[in-house]
Amino acid sequence: MKFLVTAGPTREPLDPVRFISNRSSGKMGYAIARAALARRHEVILVSGPVCLSAPKRAETLRVVTADEMFDAVQSRIAEADALVMAAAVSDFKPASFAVSKIKKRSGFARIELAPARDILSSLVFPKKKPLVVGFAAETESLAENALGKLREKRCDLIVGNDVSRADAGFESDDNEVLLCFRGGETRLLRREKKTLLAKKLVKIFERMKENL
Ligand code: CTP
To answer: Which of these CATH numbers, 3.90.1150.10, 3.30.230.10, 3.40.50.10300, 1.25.40.10, describes 2-91+112-211?
Structure first.
C-alpha cells in the first residue's frame, strides 16, 4: 500500500519571528510512518515543524502552515491507498501577517484571528477514494467528540486521544486511543508506547483497506 501520513503541528505566522501553533510533537505520525515502512509499505510523510529525524525510506515533504499542508496532501492524494491525518493542524491563524517584526511599543493590544483551512473537510478526493483516517485531539467527552468528527470529516476511522493527560497524547512517548469506526463501533487501545501502538494501527488500516 501507499500511505500518505501527516504529522506534527502547523505554524501560522504573525510576523517574521512569531507564530501560533500547538503542542504536537509529531511522534505519533512519525511512528505510524515507520511502522508502515517496516511492513514494506510506501510512505509519503507530510511533516509540520518537529524535532524528529525523517524515516530514511519515506518521501518526506516539509511544510509549515495549514495551507502548505493542504497543498502537499492535495497534490499527492491521488496516489494514496490510505490517508492518515495524524497532524495537529492549526484551527486559527492571525488575520494578517506583519512583514516587519511587531515592536513591543506597539502594544500588542489584540491579535485578530481568522479560521485556518480545515484540510480533511476541504480535500478533493479522487474517484478511487483512499482509506481516510482522522485523529481527534480532545480534552473532554472523547467518545462523543470523536464520533462527531467521524461524521463531519468523512473519515473511515477516527483515532481519538485525550490530550489533557500527562502520561499520554501530546509530547508523550505513550498514547492510549479510542478507535471510532465508520459503522459506529468503538475499540479502546490501552496506553502503551506510540511505536507499539503504531504497529497495531497499521495492521488495522491494512485490514480496513482490504474490506473497503
Ligand atoms: N484537521 C484538519 N484541518 C484542520 C484541523 C484538523 O484536517 N484545520 C484534521 C486533523 O489532522 C485530525 C482531524 O482533523 O485528523 C481532527 O482534528 P482535531 O484538532 O481533533 O479537531 P478539529 O477539527 O480541529 O476540531 P476542534 O478543534 O473543534 O476539536
So the answer is: 3.40.50.10300
